């Protein structure tokens, strides 16, 4: 077996689809990379120009100034860090999908082992890594981000530092990817089943859907402006207008024998807003309703709904 590299620009811990893509991206950009994976075959498959394989997580971390973890869960990250004797001034970047209340324990573990910590989230799929519009978000000490920003920005043109508050990245990942993106895609899946099931072609569905995707982007801007101004008045469609239409659409889909779960959930929210006296307001007023304090349900555990790694 070839001798392991004595120094690399970056260590990648985890060689699943995303970790492998990150390693190749950096290697293709001329960076020296060392990779490690619990299942050695996945790591060995990456061996090549600018990519060496470490036999342990400790060896990978010792080889590079920055280690990037792209593992299955935060529990896996914790297990890997527990196996590492020390970080000795290294930076540990965690791109594993997690939730808000999991971050501090990883940061504290890195600190105890003498390392710095950045928490991150990847808002794209592996094939989108490296594109100008691809988004990755980071949080942690700003001076640590500044030290590694050039390396990290190679992964996407819309790579951003958010805050020194570590949990904010996971809040955004859980909300934007976990809740918004996955719910929107599930709504589209249900839509496609209904529309295509009636005999309409995929091309026709695409022509009808893509302008609506653009409309969603505009509606997001309008909703956030309404929140900023605390003004939910409208001269467009009112909450009651929309709720009535949603009930009508839902009934039509059910009569056709197709699944309607996402629209049912949305209709339930609209019904609640009407019951709260918001019928004459814009649909965005629902944000104000849902932000009102509710009984705490307890801490979440396990994966958030982030994009699969």
Automatic annotation (TrEMBL):
A molecular function (GO) term: oxidoreductase activity
Domain NADPH-dependent reductive aminase-like C-terminal: residue ranges: 180-290
Keyword 4Fe-4S: no
Statement: the UniProt record of this protein carries the keyword Oxidoreductase: yes
Occurrences of domain 6-phosphogluconate dehydrogenase NADP-binding (ranges): 9-161
Xref: Pfam families: NAD_binding_2, RedAm-like_C
Domain of life: Bacteria
Keywords from the named record: Oxidoreductase
Family label: Belongs to the HIBADH-related family.
PANTHER family in alphabetical order: CYTOKINE-LIKE NUCLEAR FACTOR N-PAC, OXIDOREDUCTASE GLYR1-RELATED
Protein name: NAD(P)-dependent oxidoreductase
Naturally occurring in which organism (per UniProt): Mycolicibacterium septicum DSM 44393
């Amino acid at each position: 077996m070839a001798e392991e590299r004595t120094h690399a620009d970056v260590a990648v811990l985890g060689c699943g689809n995303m970790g492998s893509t990150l390693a190749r991206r950096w290697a293709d950009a001329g960076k020296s990379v060392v990779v490690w994976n619990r299942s050695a075959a996945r790591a060995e498959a990456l061996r090549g120009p600018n990519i060496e394989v470490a036999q342990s997580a400790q060896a990978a971390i010792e080889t590079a100034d920055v280690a990037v973890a792209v593992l299955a869960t935060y529990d896996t990250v914790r297990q890997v860090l527990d196996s590492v004797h020390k970080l000795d001034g290294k930076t540990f970047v965690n791109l594993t999908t997690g939730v808000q209340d999991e971050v501090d324990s990883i940061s504290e573990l890195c600190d105890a082992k003498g390392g710095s910590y950045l928490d991150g989230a990847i808002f794209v799929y592996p094939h989108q890594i490296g594109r100008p519009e691809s988004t990755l978000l980071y949080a942690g000490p700003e001076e640590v981000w500044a030290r590694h920003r050039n390396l990290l920005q190679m992964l996407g043109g819309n790579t951003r530092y958010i805050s020194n508050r570590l949990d904010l990245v996971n809040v955004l990942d859980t909300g934007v990817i976990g809740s918004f993106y996955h719910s929107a895609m599930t709504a589209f899946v249900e839509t496609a089943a209904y529309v295509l099931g009636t005999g309409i072609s995929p091309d026709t569905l695409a022509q009808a859907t893509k302008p609506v995707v653009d409309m969603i982007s505009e509606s997001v801007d309008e909703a956030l402006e309404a929140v900023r101004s605390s003004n939910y008045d409208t001269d467009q469609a009112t909450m009651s207008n929309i709720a009535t239409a949603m009930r009508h659409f839902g009934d039509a889909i059910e009569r056709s024998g197709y699944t309607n779960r996402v629209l049912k959930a949305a209709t339930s929210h609209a019904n609640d807003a009407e019951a709260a006296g918001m019928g004459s307001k814009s649909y965005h007023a629902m944000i104000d309703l849902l932000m009102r304090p509710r009984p705490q349900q307890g801490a979440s555990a396990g994966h958030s709904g982030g994009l699969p790694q």
